[in-house]
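Appendix B, record 7
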Amino acid sequence: MSTVELNQQERQQLLDVLRDMDATKGTERRRDKRREVVVNLVVRKVKSGNVRKAAEPVSVFPGRVVNVAARGVGLKLAQSLETGDKIVLPLRFREGGGWLVLCQVRTCAKDSDGSFRIGAKFVERLDDPEGIAKIPVDWLL
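Structure tokens (predicted):
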């Protein structure tokens, strides 16, 4: 799995947004503005739509996070994804540690340059303090 180094500002933005996924917090009722960021990383597609076929390999490809919000993320990819696809974003922090974040694709639109803008909602995250966490089996089912 490739590592991603974030600067302090990017790390803080992602921490602020992804902490909202904490199940112990109350429900957020207002929509937060998107925060523009640029983070290059490797995206793993773990499920197609709502069902993953046994023979379907996990796809790995480069991508870029272009913005984050309280409930989701905007990505720019070279290939399209379908609504309902599940992807994992491996986030590494310069100060150490990181997260694996499971997301579900909500939108996909082709840009004029041939790339695709993906809108995905956060589903779950896994703390990865050592940078060695594996994708949980239940994320693959």
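Remarks on this record: The chain is about 10% helix and 45% strand. The mean pLDDT is 80.
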